[in-house]
Design brief:
elongated; three-stranded antiparallel β-sheet; 143 residues; alpha+beta; Alpha-Beta Plaits
Amino acid sequence: MAIRISSETSSRVDNLNKHRDILFDSLHPDPNQAHSATLAISDLNGIEQIDVISPTRIAVRYQLSLITLADIEFVLRELGYHLDGSLMSKMKRALYAYTEETERANLGYTSSQQSTRDVFIKQYQKRPHGCRDPRPDYWRDYL
């Protein structure tokens, strides 16, 4: 038995899949920000695909019902990446943020910081834990 999706339902589902480009500042100390940013945000809930287009540009496909472009950019900024600060990029970001939040509100989705918090939890778990005191053992016990 085949299940058919009406054209209205399929267009609504297609509207929830967003394709955006994220541009990085070329003056950052990391010359290949796009690749390292791809590794950092690939675990975010809602991101379906990330393609590195150039050392300062990535293409992201994500589910609007789970995450917004503003959330992705917030995570990137918190992790120390520098996004492109040109006027055109800022205007695009503002337009995307407005339209995505309006779409989410019209569809009844609430904003959730769960997925962005998970990135920081996973980054913390990847770090080596233990004694980070660079002093030798005999100096740590000396008082």
